[in-house]
Structure formats: structure tokens, C-alpha cells
Amino acid sequence: MKTDILLLRPKGKMTNSRLFATEQLGLSYIAAYVRSRSLTAEIIDGFLEPDRYDRLISGIEDSDYRVIGYPLYEETLKRVASDAARIRRRAQKVHITLGNHFATFRASGLLQEFPQFSSAIRGEGEQTLAELARSIIEGTGMQSILGLTFRQDETIVTNEPRPNIENLDDLPFPARDTLPLVIAAGNAPLIYSSRGCNARCIFCSVHKFYRSSPGGMWRGRSAKNVVDEMEQLTKRFGVSEFAFADEQFLGHGTAGKDRAVGIAEEITRRGLRCKWYIETRSSDVSLPLFRKLRDSGLHAVFMGIESGFDPALKALNKGIKTSQHIEAIEILKELEILASIGFIMFRPETTVEELRCNLNFLEQISCGEVTALVTQLKTYEGTDLARILGNSTVKRQDGRKWEFADHRVGQCFEILMESADTITVSYNEFARVRRLGVLTYLECLELQRLLNSGPICKARLVIDEIMNQKLGFDELRTIARVCFKEVCEDFLRILWFTEAIAKGRPREDGIKLLSPMSLC
User: Fold this and answer.
1) Using an 8 Å Cβ cutoff, are 372 and 96 in contact?
2) Tell me: the pLDDT tens digits for 454-511?
3) Dihedral of the alpha carbons of 197, 13, 516, 251, in degrees to the nearest 10
4) What are the residues whose beta carbons fall under 8 Å from the beta carbon of 382, sequence distance 6 or more?
5) Residue whose C-alpha is closest to residue 283's, from 255, 308, 312, 319
């Protein structure tokens, strides 16, 4: 019997990192919604099951599926286009549609460039895909399907946008077809308790994506609805850890914070013993609020810090000052909540002064990932940053779409990037030990401070040498590579010694984390 909808996630690059073994929750929501509309749907996740994915797309016939849907990102475009072309060799009539941010912003262009794609869904996809499948089953036209851009003969038709779903409680809980694979990989289930973000960071596509449709502001599910899902997952899969994937868990204003408190109180009222993790802005972290969240199981918080240099924060339109970042991190430390940060060390306008300020900031907070030293600003379709840089920018071999205004900063970037592998190895080992749960919060914090101190010190020396120009660039690059390797190896010896000692003492409830966020 022909299945109505096949939802595919393409294979990813080969990696041993557990952070990527997560559900594609957008597909899970779509599968649940279309099933609730009496349509059949199947999810095949190429990242979690690459062999099964390969076998499937190599053998698909027109008689197998009516619609095939892919979530599309800029970095997966080539893989998805190639896989769709493979499907077309055996299945000429199946309708292949795209969704997600990149498909929303580039819908017409994608259909013009890639004839293997039949349509693109703009904005939230649940209702649009259900109507698309129904129109194909019934043989009706697609002109009335809101949020759809589609190919009609030689013409690309763009329908009116579909309003965002106003009441998220109306949606069924996402289908958890792939969750057993995620749990087996050592990760926690994801939960979306809200959609949207009211911030306007110039590098982020989230607010642009939701505002491309009517009703695009932040919307949150009710506390009861959220905890109902958590309780259901606990009963079905035996999990006790949850990672909220919301772009902004605390929403906007008093109502958003009240909802967060409501979730915490509902967890406590039901006696649901669990650990959970969120993403938020540092400006929303306060001691009274986060004490309540902590008491109900909040263990870790991810914040998009981005910079420790106020002019950079202003240029990125973060709407936050460095002092607020520091205050938020100190509050989380006081409550013994693990803080993890997003950071942008390098951007087109980065100055030497900014680099020095960022290094001082990372040293002060001590809890930032050491990998922040090699992070660079990424340009995503539909963002204000992409518009500012312009369509004429040429994508470099390393994936960057811009050049450094100060060539000395570019030299620092090149030298640090050459040591990125050793920095990453030391951080991943630290994360592995932290996940064991044999260390206390303060021990983890001290180890992370020690992990960061060596590379930060060497980064300062690199900047000084570039400014002094006493060494040639190639000579400095070689020396720096050796220095970074030495400090990382020194840390690893201390880490492994600490791990051995910790494993030999009576086990306490440390901070074992299974979160798929960039926390571990």
C-alpha cells in the first residue's frame, strides 16, 4: 500500500560526536500532525540510520510514496539535491517538497535551479504539508494551499503565506519514531515548548523565519501541555532528562517568565523527578526566577553570549551588554546550574582590541567552551547580516562569505584555526568526564577554568607576536601549533588523573548530563 508521506533527513558528515545524534523534531511534529489528519507518514533519519537511508532512496518507486519531504539547510543543500536526483531516476512522479528556514527564504530560486524539487513549504509546515498531500491524493490544484511555492509546468507559483499556528496546544505531541535511536546514542529527547524569538540579532534567521508569516511573534505552549508531554515521555521511554530546543524558552516579558515558573511548578506538583535544560538570553536570568527553575530540575542553560566586547554586541544588535552576561553567569554559578555559551570570536570588523577583550572575558567567566577561541560569524540566508554583506559576496573555500577588515586579525584567525583540532580534543575529553557524573559542580567548574587558561594564554601571545612582527608568519604559525598542543596535552594529563581519583571515591550525584545541546 502506498504511503502518503515520507519524511527524510539526509545523512550528515561522518562524526563521532554524540551532540548530533538528535531527533529532527520538525519532522516529528509534521508526522504527528498529518497522522492526526488520517494521512500515513514515515520518518527515515539518514543521520541516525545512514545505511537504511541509502537503501531506501536507491530503491524508491513511484508506487511507494506520494510526497517526499526534506528539511533543508544551506549546508545540506548539495546532499539533498543529489539524493533527490537519485530518487528521480526511479520515481518520476513522486512529489518532492522542501521545508525549513533555507527553503522559506529561497523557495522560488531553489525550484528554478533544481528541477528535481517539486515545491517548497514556507514557514511552519504541518498544515501546509497535510493539505499538499491531500491535494495530490484527490487530484485537486495547489493554488489555494497557503505557504506553498510550487512548480506548475514551466512556471513557479508562490501562494500567499500561511499564518503561524496561534495556539500551539492544538498541535498533537510530536511523533517519537526516532527517539529510541537517540536514547541509545546517549542523548535526551528534545522538546519545543514555544516557537519564535522576539530578539532581532542580525545574524539569526529565527525571527526572520517566523515573521515571514502572519502572527510571527513568540508563542508558548501552556505549562500543563508541556509537562503532559514530559510525563508521557517518561512513561513511554523511561527518560528523566529533557532538552528544551526553544530558541527562547523564557519568551518575552512577564508573561513568558510566568509561563516558565508555571512549568517548574507543574513539574514539582506532579512529583516528576527530572533534569532539564534550556536556551535563553542572559538578560532574562535572575536569581529568584532561576532558583525556582533549579528547584524543579533545571540543570543547564545555554546562552548566546556572542561577545565580551560591547561595541560588537551593539553591531550584532544583541540588545545586551557585557555586564549583563557576567551577571547572568554569576547567578547560574551561585545556583550551581551549568552555563554554556554561544560565542563569536571572529567577525568581519573584529579588531585587535576586540580580540583582547574577548580573551579577558572568557578568562573571567571561566565557564565558556574553549572552542569559542576559533568560532567565526556565519552568514545565513534571510538574515539582516546576509543583506548587509550583499549578494555579491563570494563564498570562500573555508565557507566564510566575508574577509577581515584588519589583516592582522585574519592572521590570528588562521593560526588559531590550525590548532582547532587539539583544542577540540581537549574539550571533548573534558565533556566526556563531566558526563560521567563523578565530579561535583565546583570540580567541573575548576577543571573548565584550567582547560581554558592555557589556550587563552597562548592566544594572547599570538596576538602580541603578530603586533610586534618579530617573527615571520610561517614561523609563528609553527611555534603556535606546538604551544597549543603542549598546553592541551598538559590539561589532558591532569584531567585523566582527576578522573581516576574521582572514580575511586564514593559516587555522589554529580552533574551527569545527557543533553544534546552544546553543553556536554
Assistant:
1) no
2) 999 999 999 999 999 888 999 999 999 999 999 999 999 999 999 999 998 876 555 5
3) 0
4) 101, 102, 104, 105, 205, 208, 209, 212
5) 319
